[in-house]
Amino acid sequence: MAEDAIKRAEEIGAPEGVAIFANIEPIYPVDADFMMGWVETLSPSPYEAAIYGDFSEGHDVRAAFDQAVEVNPSILDVAIIWTHQPQKGITTRENAPEFNPGTPEEARALMWQYGIDAETCNIDTNLFKRKLLDYLW
């Protein structure tokens, strides 16, 4: 899967340093082998390994991530994390919460989707660290 993502990124001309996210929705099965494969395949490529999912305690993505880190601790330093937990609800910019995603403390958590599916406009609200801009295209 990661090899295909690299190939597609090259085909569309994505510049070096861009993050390629594995989108792991709550209904998708995931394990430590997937996490390690994703990160270890993308790491030597021109792109950054990134993962979107529920990284809060007790969820499959978090368990798979933690198990992968036990085998390869460098994953903590390499993988860019975007989580959608904990949910705080849709807010205005002025009422946005402080950046506090539900991820392992040592993880490179750069984005937090804290509000999903606004009623008046089907959008999600996110906070991100400025560093994330280095990895977007």
From TrEMBL:
Gene3D superfamilies: Glycosidases. It comes from the Bacteria. SUPFAM superfamilies: (Trans)glycosidases (SSF51445). This is Uncharacterized protein. It comes from Caldalkalibacillus horti. The lineage of its organism: Bacteria, Bacillati, Bacillota, Bacilli, Bacillales.
